[in-house]
TrEMBL record:
<feature type="compositionally biased region" description="Acidic residues">
    <location>
        <begin position="181"/>
        <end position="194"/>
    </location>
</feature>
<dbReference type="InterPro" id="IPR036104">
    <property type="entry name" value="BFN_sf"/>
</dbReference>
<protein>
    <recommendedName>
        <fullName>BFN domain-containing protein</fullName>
    </recommendedName>
</protein>
<dbReference type="InterPro" id="IPR003729">
    <property type="entry name" value="Bi_nuclease_dom"/>
</dbReference>
<feature type="region of interest" description="Disordered">
    <location>
        <begin position="181"/>
        <end position="202"/>
    </location>
</feature>
<dbReference type="GO" id="GO:0004518">
    <property type="term" value="F:nuclease activity"/>
</dbReference>
<feature type="domain" description="BFN">
    <location>
        <begin position="5"/>
        <end position="133"/>
    </location>
</feature>
<dbReference type="Pfam" id="PF02577">
    <property type="entry name" value="BFN_dom"/>
</dbReference>
Amino acid sequence: METNFVELQFHGIHTMEPDGFTCAVFRWEDGNKVLPIWMDQDDALRIQAYHSGYRPRRPGVHELLADAFTRNGPWVSNLRIVSHFEGVFMASVITSEGEELDARPSDILMLSELLELPIAADEEILQQCAVFVNQDDMEAYFGIMIEAADDDEVFAGESASGDAQADADFEQLMQSLGVTEDDLFIDMDPDDDGGDKPEGKT
């Protein structure tokens, strides 16, 4: 069975209540769904700094890798989220020769910023793990503006994503991590373009 990879849009690092965990937020255009990927706070802060335009004076590990990957022409062809198990996502760097290198999501996010390459995810993972966010919440919590489409309206009583089983599966996953959908979108500053912070923290 052929795997279908879907390009995602990265919308920064956010801090999720109630425990202050950091996650990268990706948007999947199909059905206005969001894929949050939890990660170490240090990695998250580094990614957000790059996403905001910061560049260090001296190269770090990812800068050295990016330089090596491009020294003799483009060597990386794709950055992908390839699997998911019990709340943990696995990623891959795909070379121009078709080799697949195991990586963490935070690694491919850094390479995405440095190499200016998009990130794609296995559509099956998105069906299982992405959560629907309505247009008002997309704008209020993530600053994502989406044009309204009359044909895509969701009516009361229907599954928000159009797939009730996918919604139930995601809710179960989030509960296993100790996070509810209400927790996911709480106390976030819509005017903050960087990593959001819990109330009372700087």
